[in-house]
Specification:
The chain has 169 residues and is α+β, with helices and mostly antiparallel strands. Helix content is 38%, strand content 17%. It has seven helices and five strands. A three-stranded antiparallel β-sheet has the order 2-3-4, with helices on both faces.
Length: 169
């Protein structure tokens, strides 16, 4: 199940593939989906238990991403490239590389379907902080929005199953 982990790096240095500069990131996306498919399914975070954490200690909570969740940032619209190359795709199949990059959360839904969702830079930063094991306060230190917007984002992350566990410092 680990076969293919180095494919993106291979494409990045493989001269004949240089005409397709997005190819390494598409391979990273495919690898993230492969790993997500094989990841164990974990229960969602128990929000009732989190509500019991004293307010003064909530900033010390350390969220961890669920095992099948990956974060990906690319200069290219790799989500659109991937989507247009899926069997049965019937939408617009032209991808304009100049439309810009993508910041993605990648996972499989409980129904076993691959899922990609674009996230904002600040959202990616929060999730990356969780991935690195930072506490909530540290992960959200540079959040540009309101606390209500942050709470909304965290609720969405829990709803999507991106957060696999939570521990108080």
């Amino acid at each position: 199940n680990d076969y293919g982990a180095e494919l993106a790096d291979f494409f990045a240095s493989f001269e004949p593939a240089s005409a397709l500069p997005y190819l390494p990131d598409v391979a990273r996306l495919e690898w993230a989906l492969h790993r997500a498919l094989l990841a164990p399914v974990v229960p969602r975070v128990d929000l009732a238990a989190l509500a019991q954490v004293p307010e003064a200690r909530r900033g010390q909570v350390r969220f961890a991403l669920a095992p099948g969740v990956a974060l990906l940032e690319s200069r290219y619209p790799v989500d659109r490239i991937w989507l247009t190359n899926q069997p049965g795709y019937t939408g617009e199949d032209r991808v304009d590389l100049s439309e810009g990059g993508a910041r993605l959360a990648v996972w499989f839904t409980p129904d076993g379907e691959p899922a990609l969702e674009r996230v904002e830079p600040a959202e990616l930063q929060v999730l990356a902080g969780f991935e690195r094991g930072l506490a909530l306060d540290d992960s959200c230190a540079s959040w540009p929005g309101t606390s209500q917007e942050l709470a909304g984002f965290l609720a969405r992350a829990v709803e999507r199953g991106w957060i696999g566990s939570a521990q108080v410092g």
